[in-house]
From TrEMBL:
Keywords: FAD, Flavoprotein, Oxidoreductase
Keyword set includes Flavoprotein: yes
Biased composition (Basic and acidic residues): 920-929
Designated name of the protein: FAD-binding PCMH-type domain-containing protein
Superkingdom of this protein's organism: Eukaryota
Amino acid sequence: MATLNSLKQALRQKAEATNPSSKQSLSVTQYSAGFDILMQGPGWTTYKDFIIPQLSELLATLCTSRSHISVLEIGPGPKSVLGYLPTRLRRKIGKYTAFEPNGLFAAKLEEWLYSASLDTESPLPSVKNAPDIFQNPFVLQDVREHDKKYDIILFCHSMYGMNSKQKYIEKALGMLVEESQGGIVVVFHRDGALNLGSLVCHRTASFPTGVVRVLDNNEALDCFAPFVAGFVPQDAITRDNWRKVCRALGRNDGAHPGRILFSAPDIMMAFNKHATSLPDLLTQVPSANGGKVVKNWEARIHSPACIVRPTAISHVQKCVRWALKQEVGLTILGGGHSGHCLRPNVVAVDMGAFDQIDIIATRDDDIDSGPNSDSGPLVFVEAGCKTGDIIRKTTTMGVTVPLGARPSVGAGLWLQGGIGHLARSHGLACDAVVGAVVVSVVTGDILCLGRVPSSHWPVGGVRPSNEAELFWAICGAGTNFGIVISVTFKACRAPTFSTRNWIVPLSDNLEARQRLRDFDDLVARKLPRNYSADAYLYWDVGKLHLGVTMFESITPTTASTPSPIDVGAILGLEDDSKPLEESSATVDGVGLFEAEMYVSRMHGGHGGGKTSSFKRCLFLKRIGEVNVVDSLVAAIATRPSPLCYLHLLQGGGAIGDIGPDATAFGCRDWDFACVITSVWPRHQDGTEASRSAVQWVYNVVGDLLSLRNCTGVYGADLGPDPRDVVLAAKAFGQNGTEIARFKGISDPHRVLAYACPLPKTPTQQKLIILVTGESCAGKDYCADAWVSIFPRCARKPLTARVSSISDATKREYAAASGADLGRLRFDRAYKEHHRPTLTVFFQEQVRQRPRLPEEHFLEVVHDATDVEVLLITGMRDEAPVAAFSHLVPDCRLVEVRVQASERERRTRRGLSGIENGADNSKDSDKDRPNIAALNYCPSLIFDNDTAGNRAAERFAERHLFPLVHEDLQRLANMVRSVPDFPRPNIEFRHVLGIAQQPDGLALCTSLLETHFIGDWGKVDAIACCEVGGLVYAPALASSVDVPLVLIREAGKLPPPTVSVTKTSSYISSVESKNAKEKKMEMEQGVVRRGASVVVVDDVLSTGETLCAVLQLLNEAGVIAENVSIMVIAEFPAHRGRQLLRQRGYGRVPIQSLLVFDGV
């Protein structure tokens, strides 16, 4: 699948070779036809998933400091992308100007801007004066608009044909508002470098997965190819050749036959008024003079604004303070292995001059020990050193540090983990860090953490007040919180290593299962800590191979000990492709670098080849289990290049001795680190071959992440690719949220915005929507419709995702039965055919593992930690909110049941009513879904009988958007948390305190009134019991003009009364160990028999109080079907909903405004 840029070059070359004089400029109509193709299908996905969210984020920041903004847009097309922003941002645009040279587009744009009606507002409703639409290009010499100033100038895919793009950006910069007002120029550009010289980016982001889809017919290709090439050929031969080029370079879209796909990666670059300020920095800090080797192929394709090479800490401080002043970011260049060490038009700081290594025999007066004092030799290492430099220097002194396995890797590895062959005996590299010197990216100050040798204490260095927290973060996620100048390692005695190698050809999957199971169970698990065993899966000479290298570390004070197991008896003879002395060898730490199988043996040795690679690493347990082995073998079977391989590095031992919260590196429970590595010839960098190789890695990662054996992701490999955002959520175990929080404190101005991605800081409570319903009711369709509109939520764009809970079962069923997993997911007929056996398969799984539904639910939720709204399909459990809400007590869980008529469901299934004996009379009762047959009440019900998305969107706006409304967060902020009350280890939520807050009672009343899913006009009474209900129900009853029914303890109401016995509520039981059952009562006849009643209470925890209220109402002649419950706050951990179901009240609707974790 070629990129659009590659396609353009190929089309132009073909035209030049065929008939170079046969060219004509595109007409307005032809340009419009080609433009429409790019905006359809997956082309629009780039806008929806990248351009609109990025633009929304930039404008949200800009709009916080002003009531309205002015916009100049260059080449908006027939509709401005600004019209797709959230309503609150569109209403901030008070002035709009555009240059649109295409006359047809200009006319449509003007028509669109005035498209307000009685039902819809204008796309830019706050624009007071008529927008200025100039029907001519934006040119460098034009001075008509130069005296006008704008808050934002937007080039959205409109810089094509501008030969000196840097000059156009510079002209736009001159048209921004004054510096103090913070205007920005924003550029979105498809495919290919912009070559903007020394301009410095304020922010940049990429979208490498964008694609464009075009119909595979002559008419469509004849529209598409000229648009891409930029001209229309006048001869039939060139047109025919162009069709052939498109078909040859495009990829057939398997999901949509008859269509061709092209890659269309996108980039966003934002510039502020300081974009031309690089000379100021270069007068203070030396620039690099070339010669720096950047290993990472992703980084090599980028052109930074400049690479500076500081030679003193003061230079680094100046870099930071310059970046803070200019409001730009920096990248850090160490070993050059990370994908984020160079970014387009961002200043890179090359730390290569910081290359000092010092071995220190500790004495108390030599070390400023700080809080991490320990005895033993230390190794002081500056951030420009490579792993090989450190090992060579320390080995000569008889000591070493447990670093990684590649000599050219820099400080990013030590700070983010560092997995080597000493990890089982001495832990990770980041575990050996006992001190560090860091330049703060908040102030530019020099911060000293932990044990810093006195001889290396920098002038001006201070210990920060948050030293312990910063040191914790540095050890495991250390590239994100400041610029590390040096670290201090605790050293260990330098060992020698005995290495042995086995290479085992595998005949089929069954042998692969057996060999890997034997390796895991009989070899790896029985090795002592001074041994480690690596495994490799790769394809060579027509066969799948398992390679194994076993390392034994031997120190001068310990003799080599025989392996406790006979590995040869399990794996066979050692590798006979090499002489015996090469197959078994003894090496020191330096020689160990060349002992890796992929360096010296696999595919003839990868060590000296001119290749590029891309890798991601996951942590796995029990690699010998069938599901793991099958996934690994399937990965190799789908490799896009002959050189791809999987490397399994053994873990355990000392890695797990440290608790997951002791350092930022929280992934401690794993047997093997699985490195998925794609390799291709270097001359193919940036081609379809490299893109396919990268996508293969992500495909394999996605497959392995879905296994219960996967316990995390190695953060050191993660880079700027947005596909890494999902992986970042799993990279730090339980520490992800804390790391994200601390990032906001330690880098609030995003100076290190391009470092290893971190989990997003939770901004609000996650909403989980369970989309349920009968087969063919349209659950998946509705979920897709709803997930697409949350990012367009009027008040705040929300990240949303759809996940199917049945995917895990389908995956395991496919593995067991041989069914096609892809068709099980996406082919309705195929899925229906397998449904009976799939159901039996799942039921048998549940019989063997009764908690399997809960496991699947938690896996889906855990996999979506990076989104704010999660929609889950495929759930068939009865009353799922009652069944699962206690598993996610910090999330709001609701069920939307999608229903459709029997006739509609048969139509979607591809069956006619006549053929299947259905009643074809219009609107027959038999044709309607029967919600009454359910044994519980879903949170919401959506009737999905109407074609199109509009009904689903209206439903979301009315019922789903209110669940994430900011007023709910305002209400939650009014609930004070009181620890250790009324007893130790109880965190009390003072829900009644809302009424004591200014406007608290009014806000709560308003939310209760508007969130009620019923009709207040049909409610006969509001019932409440003391004391919580008595606080909130009267105001609500007054607001909706409904009588209030009081429920009180026995003896507090005049006779005659109706009474029931009530078990103590949760908070009453913890207040007093002697709490007893009490009677509660209501006046007889205060509510008529059969009345409709809404019960209002302050909290739902165990459900005992509400059960008693429902029982009391039943005694008074009000059946449960006529009762609804509304509470201010719910505590799902107590499973109150489940108790209500068990007591026979499962069909009573329950709504809660707030949801709180804890007890």
